[in-house]
From TrEMBL, chain B:
This is ABC transporter permease. Keywords: Membrane, Transmembrane, Transmembrane helix. InterPro entries: ABC-2_transporter-like. The keyword Membrane applies. It comes from Pseudoalteromonas luteoviolacea DSM 6061. Pfam families: ABC2_membrane_6. The chain crosses the membrane at residues 20-40, 60-78, 114-132, 144-164, 176-196, 203-220, 232-254.
Amino acid sequence: MNIALGLLVELGYLGIKLLYAYIIHDTGVHISGFAPQSLFLFIGTFILMTVFFVAMLQFNIMAFDRQIIEGEFDLILTKPVSAQFLATLKYVETWMVIPNIVVGLGLVGYGWYESGIAFNIANIGLYLAYGVLGIVTMYCVFTLPLLLTFKLHNISALHSLIWAVWDFNNLPHRIFPSPIQIIGTVFLPIFLITNFSPLAVMGELSNVEMVWGGIAPILLFMMTCWGWKRAIRAYESGGG
Amino acid sequence: MSKYKWLLGMGLQKALAYRINYAVTIMAAVFPIALQWVLWQAIFNYTEADQLYGLSYSEMLSYVVLAALMAQALRTGFEYEMAEDIKSGGLNRFIVQPLSYFGFRLSVFIGTNLGYFVATLAVMAVALWVAVEYWTLSIELAHIALFVLSAIGAFFLQFMLFYLLSLTAFWLHEVWALFESVRVISLVLSGGVVPLSVFGESLEWWLSLLPFQYLIYFPLQTLTGVLSFEQIFFGLLLQFFWIGGLMLVISTIWRRGSRSYLALGG
């Protein structure tokens, strides 16, 4: 029953993402020079990234502040494994993401084929490489705000803000005005998560963007680990 | 009656204590609005159509802004508290106290959400002013008055829907997924993401048989003057029918659920 209802939740969110795909298909709109078929590649990639978000991050984020407030975090600190790893990647969800995997792969496949992108090792490698870097970026973008829990305890509103920003990835970032593109690529690199892998295989990434897409996730990950160590130092047990 | 007023006041105080939280939540609503804004702008520019899905450019932009705000105005959250009350024996105190649980929840809901609701309506008024001034959207005063009436109806309808949903906790152990799935489905079916006309005429007709469209789509159609006064009054009647109908269903399910309630705890 719980699995079925969990699937229903994801189907609901998936439905919203597909609404955008439906409107794009129905109106035949070209966005920033991309035909609807190419736009499906972006939407499909976003849906596939949602798989990693739901499977790896969502439930850990939801449980994180409770661990701190109720003192459960003390137990994590005693384990002979990285506390950051345990506290942020402990829960893994598998069943809920099945619809996203099926639909995401379908849309990516269709968009890839219809966009006339060669299906060769170089392109697949490029797509996967930026995909993995996107996952690293996603982990950091959602983990960094968690560190505020050590100070503020209740950061639910901040999370709803980040989750709302995450939905910007429903469409290619080039649809937004330049200042938003710069902010979302450089300062809060949310656009690196889902945009760079489709852009890379379409040959639409500039050299600067290609380099930034490789460096930024690594820098961000280092910053997250550094921030984690500092936050841990300030941690005060809330347990008995 | 005074005890319910007191509960209402308590709810209001609680809501005011979290006003920064609310401000951030309203800020979060800006992002889906921005996303839809750029999408519809691109679509209208590309197709050069006067109308899409029955709405002009200015009506579509007004709709997506107002719908996102309306969805915020109708936020809930009490369903988790109700589920906890049912599962962990929190209903026990209502057995011994001269207080109706429905009245308690309704008073707290009004108290907690009235501030959010009115504040969001105020933000909507600003958005409407922008729409009228800059997007040449024409709005009549009578439509605004009828919108307020339908928005109040939507507020109570939302309460009834989620109260009814919470009663599933009498039988279900885990309710999170059910609550979230209904929340998402309700958001789409109420027209909180896109106008229901996007789904096509036949599906829109089928959706009109459900209560969800009276949460967002109908109030906004009332406001933007898409409906005639006759259609608005008929719609308001149906909205009140749904509120009354759900109240009856709630009282029936409550009675059945109470029979399977285990008064856990001290």
